Amino acid sequence: MTEKEKMLSGTLYNPANKELTREREVARKLCRQFNQSTETEKKLRVKILKELFQTENSSIWIEPSFKCDYGYNIKFGHKVFLNFDCVILDTCEVSLGDNVMIGPGVHIYTAQHPINPIERATWQETAAPVSIRDNVWLGGNTTICPGINIGEGSVIGAASVVTKDIPPGVVAAGNPCRVIRKVDEK
């Protein structure tokens, strides 16, 4: 099994592997080009994002600056908006549904390091996918931890740290993030 196959399967892998290092360099170059583009270069931005994410989906709107590890592990629904300064560490799949709104400074992580210090000293890591369903809004400066699923129609309050799955149709917030109420409750 290659290091990339290990990474995508969620088993321990070496992120310093040459193939993975090269792929991160490509993603960083594309992110840098995107982040240095101007607000009037919309066609250039769309072209860069299509290459970065390896998609033909043009209904993605991202405000610079944006950073990710690989890009190709991020799957977008239609009409997805990422505000300024978002970071997605996509060592595993990150799925963003339709009509997802992501506030400024949101970080989404799939990479995980071993808890055991002896294992961690090997500099190997694992990854767990993140799924954000349709019609979700993530408030600014929210952190989504590896392996999290956020249910359809939910709202995550600003500055939350999401460490457990969030069911559909709720407002959740805090550190750690917890359900406050249903979306349709006052």
From TrEMBL:
Q: What is its EC number?
A: 2.3.1.-
Q: Which Pfam families match?
A: Hexapep, Mac
User: Quick check: keyword Acyltransferase in the entry?
Assistant: yes
GO molecular function annotation: galactoside O-acetyltransferase activity
Q: Which residues form the Maltose/galactoside acetyltransferase domain?
A: 4-57
Return the InterPro entries for the record.
Answer: Hexapep, Hexapep_transf_CS, LacA-like, Mac_dom, Trimer_LpxA-like_sf
Q: Which domain of life is it from?
A: Bacteria
- Record keywords, A-Z: Acyltransferase, Repeat, Transferase
| Catalytic class of the enzyme | transferase
The record, for PROSITE patterns, names: HEXAPEP_TRANSFERASES
Family, per the entry?
Belongs to the transferase hexapeptide repeat family.
Q: What is this protein called?
A: Acetyltransferase
Record organism: Lentisphaera araneosa HTCC2155
